[in-house]
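**Entry details**
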Amino acid sequence: MWNKIKQFVLKDLWLKLLALFVALIIRLTVSTAIHQEAVLSSTTLNIGNARIFSRIPILIVSPATDPKRYTIRPETVEVEIRGSPSMLARIAERDIRVTVDLTDKTALQRRMQRVDVALPPGIMLVRVSPTFVEVAEVTQ
């Protein structure tokens, strides 16, 4: 009887070991994929709802040594943000900072400037409209 068991185990041992190795690789791949999908779905759930803020004023950031004044057209933007419901409930318009950076010397040579949006941690920017604004120097 022990001979039959020994023969059963040792016959085609390399094929059996190869099959075991392939099964372990498949098991590891599937469990990793399931784990990554679970992590991805949990981060997607944490993104939460969206909220839109209309007419957020744009601040001009210019060098302190620059005595010139500038106008922006349009003067406000619409900002759509996403986050957890509790974060969105607490956020106010004053927590969203929208700027146009004119500190770069080459920035003043361009008439259209990109709008930058700074948000509190945990809040994600979905979109800002418009993304570019027209900047003009005020002449007196």
About this structure: The chain has two domains: 2-45, 48-137.
